[in-house]
């Protein structure tokens, strides 16, 4: 978690850090924080034209919502 926080602090457009932190939040049982991070990751992936990762983030979000 600390590494993902650090990566986001350095680069707020680091989609993978948000995505992975979202997965950690999910594993820790914090559904709300997981949703928040996965939404940010999905938006960033879409802006970066990384549709495969965008779709994966959306799939993970659908499982949480």
CATH architecture identity: Alpha Horseshoe
- CATH fold title: Serine Threonine Protein Phosphatase 5, Tetratricopeptide repeat
Into how many domains do the coordinates divide?
1
State the major sheet.
none
Radius of gyration: 11 Å
CATH class: Mainly Alpha
Counted beta strands: 0
Secondary-structure class = mainly alpha
Cα distance spanning the termini: 22 Å
Please mark out the parts with pLDDT under 50 across 5 or more consecutive residues, or reply none: none
Along the chain, the helix and strand elements come as HHHH
Mean pLDDT, to the nearest integer, reads: 97
**β content, as a range?**
under 5%
Quick overview of this protein structure:
The chain is mainly alpha-helical and 65 residues long.
Write the layout of secondary structure elements.
Layout: H1 2-10, H2 15-28, H3 31-47, H4 51-64
Helix pairs in contact: 1-2, 2-3, 3-4
Task: Please describe what this structure looks like.
With 65 residues, the chain is an all-alpha fold. The chain has one domain (2-64): Tetratricopeptide repeat domain (Serine Threonine Protein Phosphatase 5, Tetratricopeptide repeat), CATH 1.25.40. Helix content is 83%, strand content 0%. The protein is built from 4 helices and no strands. The protein has helices at residues 2-10, 15-28, 31-47, 51-64. α1 (2-10) runs antiparallel to α2 (15-28), α2 packs antiparallel against α3 (31-47) and α3 (31-47) runs antiparallel to α4. The protein is flat and about 30 Å long.
